[in-house]
Amino acid sequence: MLASVRSLRRLSSSSSSSSLSPASLRRLLLLLHRPPPPPPPPRPPLPPFQTLARGLLPRIAARPVPRRFSTASCSSTLFRVGECGAPGATAIPEAERGEEEEREGEDGGEADAAVEVAAGRYDTDAYAAVELALDSVVKVFTVSSSPNYFLPWQNKAQRESMGSGFVIPGRRIVTNAHVIADHTFVLVRKHGSPTKYKAEVQAVGHECDLALLKVDSEEFWDGMNSLELGDIPFLQEAVAVVGYPQGGDNISVTKGVVSRVEPTQYAHGATQLMAIQIDAAINPGNSGGPAIMGDKVAGVAFQNLSGAENIGYIIPVPVIKRFISGVEESGKYSGFCTLGISCQATENIQLRECFGMKPDLTGVLVSRINPLSDAHRVLKKDDILLEFDGVPIANDGTVPFRNRERITFDHLVSMKKPGEMAVLKVLRDGKEHELNVTVRPLQPLVPVHQFDKLPSYYIFAGFVFIPLTQPYLHEFGEDWYNNSPRRLCERALRELPKKAGEQLVILSQVLMDDINVGYERLAELQVKKVNGVEVENLKHLCSLVESCTEENLRFDLDDERVIVLKYQNAKLATSRILKRHRIPSAISADLVDEQATDDGEEATNGEIEASCTS
Fold first, then answer.
1. Are the beta carbons of 178 and 287 closer than 8 angstroms?
2. 562 and 460 fall within a common domain
3. What is the pLDDT of residue 57?
4. According to the UniProt entry, which residue ranges have a biased composition of type Pro residues (predicted)?
């Protein structure tokens, strides 16, 4: 005791020049003899499934939480008080913290126990869902090699990437299309296993960013469970995203709530489909993992918003079911339907009056129609589209969706099956008409993506001809919209095809040789004609060149540019140029296969005619 008094005195003397009074000494002695506070009552045991999941769920600040998912409390050994509270919370000073701990130790134990029991009762379903996901979610390892569109006869260096996936009924694995795009080899590994199993891609839909994998190994399926697809969650409902994001090798679980449900631009396929925005962190590697609500899948994680914090997106169940049903019916991905029209909102009252819309009518103005669509047969420019399948369309192009929500009517079109009939109500010249239109997927004039296939090309006299695609424009860098040739970029984004099979053929580059000296600055221009014949596509250009019977071969390009070659000399120069640049073939494999097929059909037709004649 004397030593304690001496230490206190030394401490006091180090902080003040005055000596300790007898009254102060008595107060210190009473403080030292004060009995310690009673220990808090023991906490109740964790409910079922909590032990494993508690180590997996993220440690986040306590807040009011929906029933299905819990919030794991912050550990005092890992976090300071100000770090695991609300953002910007101030840490409690050490002296005040000791007093508060004494007060909380006396009466806070019972309250904490009651809160944990209530939370555990609500969180059992969430932990059960996570336990179920542990035997359903897999890690996907992909080796891929993308084409080089500047040098279309060769690929870029192979690269390795990782993603997530989950098992659905029928021994199939759902993942994202961008996880296995341009794949050469795919492996999967289940949770808790060191073994990787080879997987085959059964179907892939790049527009909806979904893919189906299958694994032939029986050992892989031992102990695996399938997840059931649920429904679209409502706003503020909690979901848990399970997957294998970057930063570690083991499974990860993050939580969030639904913030928004609306059509969103899919970054991979550059299409507009329904998506669910959540505030859970979705990082590289999470792609393809399930977002679980209760004991069912609410969506598939696939992208986030760059430059923003905790804004992620999941593919909703209707899009997943539409993709899977199309594969089951046709054996392959069938695509998402479109009307093939562009519409303008009619929110301006003067615009509505000009087209004869009464105050009780709402709709959108048809401004462009794809010539290849069935709508081109029945719709006209300046029609007012009032209803789609009996659902009224508002002046801003939206339709009712669930409880007091609205969504663009494009969603109704995209959920229909290819070849299905849709009923349109339109206003034309002041009169209402009901029209039947067949919806189906439509291909743009300039393809948006070219995954899982080699680019087409044709080389003659050192001139490299290719069809214009957006992947070719992407080779100009991340800012390809500003760095790529302006005219080609505008055509790629705005022009519509006039007939089936049409392509924009361009001269991408000139491999220098004596035969083409002086033409080297004519690259990146569209080829309009060959010997006076308009070019329909690359295959047509190839056939026009190969079947040339004239002495000179003439190419008419954009900007009224012209290339003229001596045909026989150009043919001899082609083989010389290919050898110099180590190019294996002057024509891509797909064009060779098409030519072989056409030749086979012509030979078969000739044999039939001969047999009929005989």
1. yes
2. yes
3. 34
4. 34-48
Residue 525 to residue 557: CA distance in whole angstroms: 6
pLDDT of residue 2: 41
Low-confidence ranges of the chain (pLDDT < 70): 1-130, 593-614
The catalytic site residues sit at: 178, 209, 287
Check if the beta carbon of residue 426 is closer than 8 Å to that of residue 541.
no
Q: What does the buried/exposed string (b/e) look like for 164-202 if buried means 16 or more CB atoms within 10 Å of the residue's CB?
A: bbbbbeeebbbbbbbbbbbbeebbbbbbeeeebbebebe
Residue 358, domain CATH:
2.30.42.10
CA distance 287 to 285: 5
Question: Do 539 and 561 reside in the same domain of the chain?
Answer: yes
pLDDT confidence of residue 132: 75
Task: Output the pLDDT for position 138.
Answer: 95
Tell me, rounded to whole angstroms, the distance of Cα 70 from its chain centroid.
28
Same domain, 304 and 372: no
pLDDT attached to residue 280 = 85
- Which of 387, 406, 437 delimits the end of a domain? 437
Structural domain for 482, as ranges: 456-589
Structure tokens at 370: 């794809």
Is 369 part of a structural domain of the chain? yes
Sign of the CA dihedral running 411, 415, 418, 423: negative
Six token digits for residue 189: 């590994």
Which residue's entry shows tokens 């059960």? 128
| Collapsed DSSP state (helix, strand, coil) of residue 599 | helix
Alpha-carbon gap, residue 132 to 224, rounded angstroms = 9
Residue 448 included in any domain: no
- What is the DSSP track for 13-49? HHH-SSPPPHHHHHHHHHHHTPPPPPPPPPPPPPPTT
Decide: residue 377, CB within 10 A, 0-12 exposed, 13-18 middle, 19+ buried.
exposed
Could you give the CA distance from residue 282 to residue 270 in angstroms, rounded to a whole number? 19
In sequence order, what are the beta bridge partners of 144?
Answer: 159, 183
Residues 430 and 471 in one domain: no
One-letter amino acid identity for 69? Answer: F
Q: What is the pLDDT of residue 612?
A: 37
The CATH number of the domain where 309 resides is what?
2.40.10.120
What pLDDT digit, counting tens, does each position of 98-152 carry?
Answer: 444 444 444 444 444 443 443 443 354 456 556 778 889 999 999 999 999 999 9
CB proximity list for 544: less than 8 A, separation 6 or greater: 530, 531, 533, 535
Can you give the pTM of this predicted structure?
0.74
The one-letter amino acid at 614:
S
Number of domains in the chain: 3
Nearest to 269 by CA among 448, 495, 490: 448
The pLDDT of residue 598: 53
| Residues 465, 485 within the same domain | yes
Which residues have CB under 8 Å from 446's CB, separation 6+? 468, 469, 470, 491, 492, 493, 495, 504
Instruction: Please give the single-letter amino acid code of residue 197.
Output: Y
Single out the residue in 269, 297, 328 at which a domain terminates: 328
CATH label of the domain that carries residue 479: 3.20.190.20
Number of other CB atoms surrounding residue 474 within 10 Å:
14
Q: What is the DSSP letter of 334?
A: -
pLDDT for position 407 = 93
- 219 occurs within a structural domain: yes
DSSP 458-501: EEETTEEEEE--HHHHHTT-TTHHHHS-HHHHHHHHH---SSTT
Residue 68 lies in a domain: no
